[in-house]
């Protein structure tokens, strides 16, 4: 077994005469620099920061709303259809793979659309700060921009008093504009 021992003489680290500078010991081998690990760590951190800075966090964006989106709901049993409700009262039904608007209900509510849910494959229930709950008919064929001209033919409004008691689907709203 061989043991290597590093031996430094103190005289090599002290000035030879009074008033001289303290000698600086340098490692002239470029492969073993004293700050090599620290430099590599700093480079790795900078690379990670730059990588995060230029990464694309979004896969895609859905266009259409002017104001912020306050409610978002996925159609049950279907992966490619969602509906979004915005602060200006608009509801848009989106097709995710093509990123197109299937249906648009501009002015669906007066103010923020605060909640939505799909009742079944053909109906969407929405509520807003205007204290109404609306049931929308969302069966559609894609027709360009998806704007529904005659919204009254596609909606049923639930007033502040409970209604639709005779149907299998019952909905009511409270003062906080949440669907019950």
Question: What characteristics describe this protein?
Answer:
single chain; 180 residues; alpha+beta; four-stranded antiparallel sheet; 8 strands; 24% strand; disordered C terminus
Protein model, in words:
This protein has about 180 residues and is α+β, with helices and mostly antiparallel strands. The chain is about 10% helix and about 25% strand. It contains 1 helix and 8 strands, in the order αββββββββ. Strands 1-2-3-4 form a 4-stranded antiparallel sheet, with no helix packed on it. A hairpin with a 4-residue loop joins strand 5 (about 115-120) and strand 6. The longest helix has 18 residues, at about 35-55. The protein starts with about 35 loop residues before the first helix and ends in a 22-residue tail after the last strand.
């Amino acid at each position: 077994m061989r043991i290597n021992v590093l031996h430094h003489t103190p005289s090599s680290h002290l000035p030879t005469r009074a008033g001289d500078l303290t000698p600086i010991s340098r490692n002239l081998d470029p492969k073993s620099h004293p700050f090599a690990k620290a430099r590599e760590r700093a480079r790795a951190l900078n690379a990670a920061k730059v990588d995060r800075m230029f990464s694309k966090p979004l896969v895609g964006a859905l266009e259409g709303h002017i104001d912020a989106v306050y409610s978002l709901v996925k159609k049950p049993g279907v992966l490619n259809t969602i509906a979004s409700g915005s602060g200006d009262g608009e509801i848009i039904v989106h097709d995710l793979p093509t990123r197109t608007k299937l249906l648009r209900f501009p002015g669906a509510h007066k103010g923020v659309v605060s909640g939505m849910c799909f009742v079944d494959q053909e109906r969407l229930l929405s509520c807003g700060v205007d204290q109404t709950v609306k049931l929308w008919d969302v069966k559609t064929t894609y027709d360009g921009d998806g704007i529904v001209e005659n919204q009254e033919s596609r909606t049923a409004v639930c007033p502040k008093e409970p209604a639709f008691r005779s149907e299998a689907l019952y909905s009511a709203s409270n003062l906080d504009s949440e669907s019950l």
